[in-house]
Specification:
Number of helices of chain B: 5
Strand content of chain B: under 5%
Oligomer: heterodimer
Helix content of chain B: over 70%
Number of strands of chain A: 0
Order of helices and strands of chain B: HHHHH
Strand content of chain A: under 5%
Helix content of chain A: 55-70%
Structural class of chain B: mainly alpha
Shape of chain B: globular
Distance between the termini of chain A: 47 Å
CATH superfamily of the largest domain in chain A: Winged helix-like DNA-binding domain superfamily/Winged helix DNA-binding domain
Structural class of chain A: mainly alpha
Largest sheet of chain A: none
Radius of gyration of chain A: 20 Å
CATH topology of the largest domain in chain A: Arc Repressor Mutant, subunit A
Distance between the termini of chain B: 35 Å
Order of helices and strands of chain A: HHHHHHHH
CATH architecture of the largest domain in chain A: Orthogonal Bundle
Number of helices of chain A: 8
Radius of gyration of chain B: 13 Å
Number of strands of chain B: 0
Number of domains of chain A: 2
């Protein structure tokens, strides 16, 4: 049951991360094995709030996630310290033909990244937003965890939005353009 | 969705967002409710807010739903 769930989940996610074939099967097999260990270790914590199988599947899903994150650093797409600011317009779907309309906004965003964020928040923002590093993979690299990386990004997003609102680029509620 | 809206949505933070640790802790409960057709997002506002904003937790949630659905197929 665990192995079937692991293989299905690996097959669902793997191709997006360019993991296929025997490598994907190995990843699924290891995830199922590690999930079984986690379930055995934590079975006394099962509180009956869901079906047991759903609780057990959760560990399979987490293990597949963790192994895919580890896999990312075998073939990283770019160094962690790169800063691909030129990818930012495409990242958010800004139309190159209308650059005159968004150039100032993205320049203001870049200024806010440099002036409003702590060094750690900036490092996480650059990795996740500019360099497309998956947050789980980043957490591994930083010796951190998903929750801490998310919190860092959460605070960074809040600060950046506040800066853009204060400078008139975004409205307090919705964006000024739709 | 244009770039302005996409950036605005990305930067928007929901104060009800419970974060990854709590969402992962309750993910099996939330997924079971959703799979059963219960409006879990009304009962667990903070988890729903988190799953909308967090790519990795949202991906795990989709995976868990797929596992539940696969079990039934």
């Amino acid at each position: 049951m665990l192995l079937r769930a692991a293989r299905r989940e690996a097959a669902r996610r793997g191709p997006r991360m360019q993991i296929t074939g025997p490598e994907l099967e190995d990843l699924a097999d290891q995830a199922a094995g590690d999930a079984l260990l986690a379930i055995t270790r934590k079975v006394t914590q099962f509180r009956g709030e869901s079906r047991f199988t759903t609780w057990a599947y959760k560990f399979v899903i987490f293990e597949v996630s963790a192994k895919i994150a580890r896999h990312f650093w075998r073939h990283p797409t770019m160094p962690l310290d790169a800063e691909s600011w030129d990818r930012l317009p495409d990242r958010f779907g800004f139309d190159p033909a209308q650059e005159s309309e968004w150039r100032d906004l993205l320049a203001a965003l870049r200024r806010a990244v440099d002036t409003e964020l702590t060094l750690r928040q900036r490092e996480v923002f650059v990795a996740v937003v500019l360099n497309d590093v998956p947050p789980d993979a980043l957490a591994l690299k930083l010796g951190s965890n998903r929750n801490a990386v998310y919190k860092m990004m959460f605070d960074a997003r809040r600060k950046l939005r506040a800066a853009l609102v204060a400078n008139g680029y975004l409205n307090d509620g919705e964006s000024r353009r739709s | 969705m244009n770039g302005w809206t996409a950036l605005d949505r990305f930067l928007h933070t929901d104060p009800r967002d419970v974060g990854c640790a709590e969402a992962m802790d309750m993910l099996h409960v939330y997924a079971d409710l959703v799979a059963a057709g219960v409006r879990a997002e009304e009962r667990y506002l903070g988890i729903a807010a988190h799953l909308r904003a967090c790519g990795p937790c949202g991906e795990d949630f989709e995976g868990l739903l797929a596992a539940i659905a696969g079990e039934a197929s």
